[in-house]
Amino acid sequence: MAIALRLSRGGAKKRPYYRIVAADSRSARDGKYLEQVGTYNPLLAKDDEKRVQLNEDRVRYWLGVGAQASDRVARFLDAAGIKERAARNNPNKAEPGEKAKERAEEKAAKVAEAEEAAKAAQASAEEAPAEEPAAEEVPAEEKAEG
């Protein structure tokens, strides 16, 4: 018989309450179980010690006879220090592919070239200020005569 440590739901609608049970893996979720080894109340605050309660001796016994913990129960056991749980997050999964990396590098190179060209144009404009043609000044005496 394959034994699983898993959650069995109880409580009213929208007010869940779970028992952590050792059950035959083929039985229904809320069906017959072998033994209740703890409780889980998701409505309590995450830092409340009554949120997850485990009978460690019985959990260790069931793990010793070959029971497999469900993912959620394995998280509880890891937090309690009973059984180590391997991290399931793959940090490399979100990394872009090779072609996307190449496109990003090309775009960065184009942006860098544009910035250099803008700096060079600005520097050349500052070095050689444009000389404005001076308006010919007509002496005031000539204006009055003419």
UniProtKB/TrEMBL annotation:
<feature type="compositionally biased region" description="Acidic residues">
    <location>
        <begin position="128"/>
        <end position="139"/>
    </location>
</feature>
<dbReference type="InterPro" id="IPR020592">
    <property type="entry name" value="Ribosomal_bS16_CS"/>
</dbReference>
<feature type="region of interest" description="Disordered">
    <location>
        <begin position="82"/>
        <end position="146"/>
    </location>
</feature>
<dbReference type="GO" id="GO:0003735">
    <property type="term" value="F:structural constituent of ribosome"/>
</dbReference>
<keyword id="KW-0689">Ribosomal protein</keyword>
<keyword id="KW-0687">Ribonucleoprotein</keyword>
<protein>
    <recommendedName>
        <fullName>Small ribosomal subunit protein bS16</fullName>
    </recommendedName>
</protein>
<dbReference type="Pfam" id="PF00886">
    <property type="entry name" value="Ribosomal_S16"/>
</dbReference>
<dbReference type="GO" id="GO:0015935">
    <property type="term" value="C:small ribosomal subunit"/>
</dbReference>
<dbReference type="InterPro" id="IPR023803">
    <property type="entry name" value="Ribosomal_bS16_dom_sf"/>
</dbReference>
<feature type="compositionally biased region" description="Basic and acidic residues">
    <location>
        <begin position="95"/>
        <end position="118"/>
    </location>
</feature>
<dbReference type="GO" id="GO:0006412">
    <property type="term" value="P:translation"/>
</dbReference>
<comment type="similarity">
    <text>Belongs to the bacterial ribosomal protein bS16 family.</text>
</comment>
<dbReference type="InterPro" id="IPR000307">
    <property type="entry name" value="Ribosomal_bS16"/>
</dbReference>
<dbReference type="GO" id="GO:0005737">
    <property type="term" value="C:cytoplasm"/>
</dbReference>
